[in-house]
Design brief:
single chain; alpha/beta; three-stranded antiparallel sheet; 17 strands; globular
Amino acid sequence: MQAIESGQLKQGDRLPTHRNLAYDLGLSVQTVGRAYDELIRRGVISGEVGRGTFVRATGNETRTPYLPRNPDGPMIDLSLLKPVLEPMHAEVMKQALRDLADNLPTTIYASFRPATALGKYRENAIKWLKHCGIELQSQGLMITNGSSPSMALAVLTAANGGDLIAAETLTHHTLKPLAGYLGYRLRGVPSDDHGMIPEALERLSLRETVRAIYLMPAGLGPQARIMPEERRRALVDVARQRDIIIIENDAWGPMQTKRPAPIANMAPERTFYFTGLTKCVMPGLRLGFLVMPEGLEAATANRHLVVNWMATPMLAEIAARWIEDGTAEKLTRFQAEAFAKRNRLAEIILAGVPFRSSPNGMHIWLPMPPGWGEDDFVSHARQQGVAVAPGEAFAIADDHTEPAVRVCLGGQSIETLESGLRVISRLVRSRFEPALLTN
């Protein structure tokens, strides 16, 4: 990564074979293989059968919105969606681990069977889903290791290789590479201030068979839109008419306090809905809940066995205790209040600057003023010690034409966030000048 960033390695350069590099560095071939796999995952190299491994262009099809590693120097990192953390979070987790040590269920350390290890947590999951506005009807429920595994399972079950998945033109940054890895086709559907436009989805489905649509209707999407109920119902109508499966990402869960009921309640027969505890409760509590349409439970469970086997029982136990005694709800209320305060701070500092936000959202979406390009703004901000996410990292199509950046509001103290927002405010109000230094 350092060699590529410094220009020592350039696009198209061929890298040594695993075996030769392992010999040169005195490492095992397996270690070098894992390093190459990580570089492929980050999208900076590619392997071509029969030709070798090459440095690739880091275009928007693989670009991550956040810094790929911790910055080497002082940096206010507003590029990554993270909750607000206080010393109380450490104390709550320490107490949970002490309680576990005093009363450790055998299933946490001894069970290989998912039903045995996780079956008893189903009622707690249902209780949490009620906080999210989900009333289970005939749907299935699966406990996962978080929203990302839930998302992968939903996509894997909803579509087969070659199928078409539709999403808003700006969507979750992992959807495009996930579709590419799995051999799915991906199309962007135009949207407006209320989200995906139903008529545009219908037109696409008349031209091509759309197998599934991917939605983030509760402010989680890069443009921070909360989809009103009328728009949700209109999309459900199109999905029913055209036999389209809906994948609903609600990773923030009940942290977004003012929002319509989830789409899964409107169309339980065709909606995969997932949420998690990482964003709204605590980053280390990597646990998610996936609700699936009736009839697809077995298919989803089989795919889960193949890619994950089961969620981590220790985290499920901690989550169950916190859901039961109210700790999870208390921590979520804290996040909602903290982000409401941070959104108000952004409104004050960026007064007069157009941007999108949601009341308790974890980020804002900042369109670029005339003269500024995304990369220019990102580069200038980093020179001044602030990292933000370029909008093209969320774009499905390569012709992303509305430059903007995502600015995350968590992960820093409110004093540090204020400093970062003031840098952004100064930049967005200033006339563009080329960056003389880029490192």
